[in-house]
Write a structure and sequence with these properties.
mainly alpha
Amino acid sequence: MGTLTQALQETAVPPLPSPLSPSHKKTRRISPSRFLHEISYFQQALLIPQQLHRPQPIHQRRSPR
């Protein structure tokens, strides 16, 4: 399981705020629910940007004040 988390950390983009923080790397024991939450987060981080990069900025720009 350790190699899986390391692989996820390597594929994850460092600058983006994520459950994997420097303090989290110190603690090696991860609860299954936490592990699944991290996986779901990475899946969203990989899938969502492609969908949101186009629609969100358009809505923000067209929003009248």
